[in-house]
Specification:
Length: 172
Amino acid sequence: IAAVSDSKGAIYSAGGIDYEKLRKVKKETGSVINYSPGERLDAKKLFELNVDILVPGARPDVINEENADRIKAKIVAEAANIPVSLEAEQKLWQREILVIPDFLCNSGGVISSYVEYRGGKVEEAFTQVREKIRQNTLLVLDAAQRKQITPREAALAVSYTHLRAHETGRNL
């Protein structure tokens, strides 16, 4: 982890951030910006850092047409709901930056809620989350690569295929 943000700003450390130390600093001071060693950044600059994986995890549309050209990450994993606009996602795809859609990255809560609703235990929830997300991510990424379309477009295609199969009573 090279950078983290909260409502008060962002902290960046090229040498990496010690997660346990960061948690302690956040708890004791109220913000990640008090972590040391590190450079304080405006939270918007977080998206322009030269990192391998960028994980927008709090707000919608933080990556948009205005800043999509400045994204340097190789992968954007959407941990928030709709953190990348559709226009920005297309720009990133054209630049060969993989955007893993929010419905793959942050679906664990929905899956575990379903297991809980059915009376399942914690272990079953973790197993289901791990299996479902892995299986569906592989399906989507494979379809995206084969069809040369964005993962979001591939996910929609896979979903339609599953819905049609369900409507006709066939299992995939």
